[in-house]
Design brief:
By secondary structure, the protein is α/β, with parallel strands linked by helices. Helix content is 41%, strand content 23%. The chain binds adenosine-5'-triphosphate (ATP) and magnesium ion.
Length: 258
């Protein structure tokens, strides 16, 4: 579904991505981890075709993004749902209008049918459909992020979901609701998911594979078990107190088969 081959990326003279190669198969859920500034968000932008690599290839759903027109890129982006860290909802639209936005704009469905779809999607992400008349400002940060996931799922029926720090700054309960949704998407929708996160426990809960980025390069690509037994110094320092015992204690090794 997604492959990067020998991708290098410069912004002006800054060498940001220094030769990255990986392939993510259909239905995989992959966590991209790494220190702040390592290049994680840049990788998402390369997958979205928002950045064009200086060299190397980015292929999404079988299509090489190199030299595509903005129009063709937009077609491909329709297969991708993106959840930004701040939720990025339209402030002046209600929750229901946010979630139903794409259908309101691009389909000929009747309003009552769109409303039915909105209700289903809000229920899918564990929100009370009654909140659809509220404005985003009136919701907590965790609820806003769930609305953002609902909107992304609804708008494009995506084959790929990309999340940038979806659980950062949320309390444990709100975090669990988000990771539950990712697990549900994984199980029920055969969607390929890429989750950029600093939250190692969340990554363990949802991902079947981990890619660690350091200074624009991949320093690890493998399972959770392999990550926990890696001897690379920066991996050990990134994991900090998180180890096999903690993962077992939190029952994180069983759920994803890691
Ligand atoms: N427009 C830009 N111009 C110059 N440098 C940039 C630009 N955007 C990003 N960078 C640099 O590229 C590097 C990677 O940035 P990126 O946003 O991908 O990091 P990240 O891993 O997502 O970090 P964080 O965890 O803090 O979100 C950083 O060193 C950043 O300073
Ligand atoms: Mg980032």
């Amino acid at each position: 579904m997604i492959s990067l081959s020998n991708v290098q990326f410069y912004i002006d003279e800054h060498h940001i991505i220094k030769g990255i190669t990986f392939a993510i198969g259909e239905g995989e859920t992959v966590a991209v981890i790494g220190q702040s500034g390592s290049g994680k968000s840049t990788i998402l932008k390369l997958i979205l075709g928002l950045y064009e690599p200086t060299s190397g290839d980015v292929v999404v759903d079988g299509i090489n993004l190199g030299h595509l027109s903005e129009r063709d890129l937009r077609q491909i982006r329709k297969r991708i749902g993106m959840v930004f860290q701040d939720g990025a909802l339209f402030d002046s639209l209600t929750v229901g209008e946010n979630v139903g936005y794409y259908l309101l704009e691009h389909s000929k469905l009747k309003l009552t049918d769109i409303d039915g779809e909105v209700v289903n999607m809000l229920e899918f992400v564990g929100l009370d459909p009654l909140i659809r008349d509220r404005l985003p400002d009136e919701l907590s940060g965790g609820m806003q992020r769930r609305v953002a996931i609902a909107r992304a799922l609804m708008s494009t029926k995506p084959r790929i979901m990309l999340y940038d720090e979806p659980t950062t700054g949320l309390d444990p309960q709100a975090t669990k609701r988000i990771t539950d949704i990712m697990l549900r998407i994984r199980e029920q929708r055969n969607v390929t998911q890429v989750i950029v996160t600093h939250q190692i426990a969340d990554a363990f809960r949802v991902a079947d594979r981990f890619i660690m980025v350091e200074d624009g390069r991949i320093v690890f690509d493998g399972s959770g078990k392999e990550l926990l037994s890696a001897s690379h110094e920066s991996i050990i320092s990134f994991l900090g107190p998180f180890n096999t015992a903690v993962a077992k204690h939190c029952e994180l090794l069983e759920e994803t088969g890691n």
